[in-house]
Amino acid sequence: MRAWSSPTSIIWLVVHLFLVLSGMLLMTTEGEKLLGATLAQSLGSGLLATGIAGMVLYLYVRMSEQTQNRLEVITAAGITGVFRHRSVRIKEHYDKRLHSAKRIDLIGLGLSSFREDYARDFAEWSRKAKVRILVLDPDFPNRAHSLADYRDLEEGGAKGEIRADVVAFLRAVEDNAEIDRTRFEVRKMRSIPAINLLRIDDEIFWGPYLMAERSRNTPTLLVRGGFMFDNLVQHYDETWKAAAPNAAA
User: Fold this and answer.
1) Number of domains in the chain
2) Phi-psi bin for 188: left (phi > 0), alpha (psi -120 to 50), beta?
3) Which of 8, 111, 185, 248 has a Cα-to-Cα distance from 98 of 20 to 30 A?
4) Terminal Cα distance for the chain, rounded
């Protein structure tokens, strides 16, 4: 708003608006009587074209400035992509990064889709990458009134779905004897899950949890570098510290 109301901007607009109005006036019958039809039409069309061009140029410059400002904000945040959904719907984006990953950090609720898609790769990941996975503790803060059960209701699912998914995920890890457990760790979150997050090396896919929506259907942002990447790394590390170690089904 400040750019649009600056003295220079106002003067530019007033001058070019005056040119437009003058051009229109000269092209009227009164203008032709005053200067003659040929001269009035020539001057009028010239002034009109100059005025319109100036106003269009002004709008273009202002829109370009706004676009540049938006790009600067996006760049500073580190946002490189936005997706309508996550999980299986953007699986190809995960696949090409996971293939050569050296670091994998993951936050989810029950991670049922992730388990179905990648459980067979856990052992291979553990041989070449440092893997940390956080699932929601199904008994936090207590079994009778757990966040997992409340989240089931928020998503519109049946009570116990997330609990069952967590148990299945932990069992899939525990039953896989080929996993190097010094490099592949799973912990149970003992905190309110704020976001879902998948870090693969220097990139992070993350998104919110929304009411009445399955987490796999929520929007996802991709960040690389920038202040958002740093904030998300810190969030993950703090959540990891607060989680229960050595999770088991």
Assistant:
1) 2
2) beta
3) 248
4) 57
Query: Directed axis angle between helix 37-77 and helix 226-242, to 10°?
Result: 30
Burial class for 84, CB neighbours closer than 10 Å (0-12, 13-18, 19+): exposed
Q: Choose the weakest-confidence range: 25-39, 42-56, 69-83, 203-217.
A: 42-56
22 domain-assigned: yes
pLDDT digits (tens, 9 = 90+) for 99-152: 999 999 999 999 999 999 999 999 999 999 999 999 999 999 888 889 899 888
User: Do 96 and 202 fall within a single domain?
Assistant: yes
The proportion of the chain whose per-residue pLDDT surpasses 90, expressed as a percent, equals 43
Q: pLDDT digit string (tens) for 198-208?
A: 999 999 998 88
Q: Is 191 helix (H, G, I), strand (E, B) or coil?
A: coil
Phi, then psi, of 146 in degrees rounded to 5: -90, 155
Domain residues for 215? 79-242
3-state helix, strand, coil in the chain (%, to 5): 55, 15, 25
Nearest CA to 135 out of 157, 164, 159, 158 is that of: 164
Q: Are 87 and 12 within one domain? A: no
